[in-house]
Design a protein that fits this description.
The chain is an alpha/beta fold. Strands 1, 2, 3, 4, 5, 6, 7, 8 and 9 form a nine-stranded mixed sheet that branches. Helix 2 links the parallel strand 2 and strand 3. The longest helix has 21 residues. It is globular, with a radius of gyration of 20 Å.
Length: 332
């Protein structure tokens, strides 16, 4: 096999208590049109039948490398995969999501055709259930600078996002560059660091094809309890804005917009789950401080404009409207 035309791709696939869906989701990876892959499955301390199921699947597919570790969270599982990866390129698939049959082929093609590409991305959809016909085969590729690429992801333009899934990375970007463990919203934390490592002459490739299906669950804002790790987003933003300003200042505006959107999501969750007034006041104050930094020169989406209006109403006056918005968004 010509490795320059068919480089090895490492698929990192963390699993925690996935007995209800693991056969179907890992099957999507096994049936990829691009076959030169290794599937790094990290069993992150599952206490259901996931490990037995994975062992049975592994016996029938030599491309699967199965690792088990005590439960340590998504970041630790992904870091284990990164340490064990042998591929030239890395992609991540969450064990409760689905990928199209051409997911890896679509992502790896820009790397093969242009050595300057360092990150490749496809579009994704969020759904409550599996839909086979949601994947598309449009292969129009747009190659941009790291600045334009990060801005696109931060602003969630054209169904792209600050996730590590639905993307493929040159393995070199992860050299001494791992996920922060014991942290929620870890993708938002690491994506700016990965894009910052891309050289000025190198490229980010966006392919106009939906190849990733992110599964919504009933464990939503309206049902999932708020916990102290939800406040991690404030720590991420605090350090992230300094990192962006020092390394990619051209993305300051888009980073502020994503920070507002992300913090508003946490505030909605805290409000719906009747979190303490102390916590609500803290998050609202952070939101107000961010919104006050918006100017006419900032790049904003409709979400930031909405948050701006709500914040101007004040904490108490805005609460009924935010609860209505939360109910509507949770049903979409």
């Amino acid at each position: 096999m010509d490795k320059s035309k068919h480089p090895l791709v490492s698929v990192i696939f963390p699993v925690f208590n996935g007995e209800d869906y693991i056969k179907k989701t890992i099957g999507c990876v096994q049936r990829q049109s691009y076959s030169n892959i290794e599937i790094l499955v990290i069993n992150d301390g599952s206490n259901d039948n996931s490990l037995d199921i994975l062992n049975a699947i592994k016996k029938k597919d030599s491309r699967i490398k199965l690792f088990s570790q005590p439960n340590a969270g998504m970041s630790a599982a992904r870091n284990k995969g990164l340490r064990e990866a042998s591929g030239d390129y890395i992609t991540f698939v969450d064990s409760d999501d689905y990928i199209g049959p051409e997911y890896i082929e679509v992502l790896v093609e820009p790397f093969i055709s242009d050595y300057k590409v360092m990150i490749s991305a496809t579009k994704f959809k969020r759904e409550f259930g599996y839909k086979k016909n949601i994947f598309t085969n449009a292969h129009r590729v747009n190659k941009v600078s790291k600045i334009e690429g990060l801005n696109k992801c931060l602003l969630q333009n054209e169904e792209f996002d600050v996730s590590v899934w639905a993307k493929m990375f040159s393995k070199t970007l992860f050299e001494d560059n791992y996920f922060v463990e014991n942290l929620t919203y870890e993708d938002f934390e690491i994506i700016p660091r990965l894009f910052a490592r891309v050289g000025d002459a190198e490229k980010i490739a966006f392919t106009d094809s939906i190849q990733y299906l992110y599964m919504k669950t009933q464990n939503s804002i309206m049902t999932k309890a708020f916990n102290e790790h939800d406040l991690d987003i404030l720590k991420i933003i605090d350090s992230g804005k300094e990192y962006i300003n020092e390394n990619i200042p051209e993305c300051n505006s888009a980073y502020l917009a994503k920070s507002i959107a992300g913090t508003f999501g946490v505030y909605r969750k805290a409000l719906w789950n009747k979190t303490s007034q102390e916590v609500l006041k803290l998050i609202f104050a952070e939101l107000r401080a961010m919104v006050n930094k918006l100017t006419l020169h900032n790049v904003c989406t409709k979400k930031e404009v909405l948050v701006l209006v709500l914040i101007k109403l004040g904490r108490k006056n805005s609460e009924p409207f935010i609860k209505i918005i939360t109910r509507i968004l949770d049903q979409l």
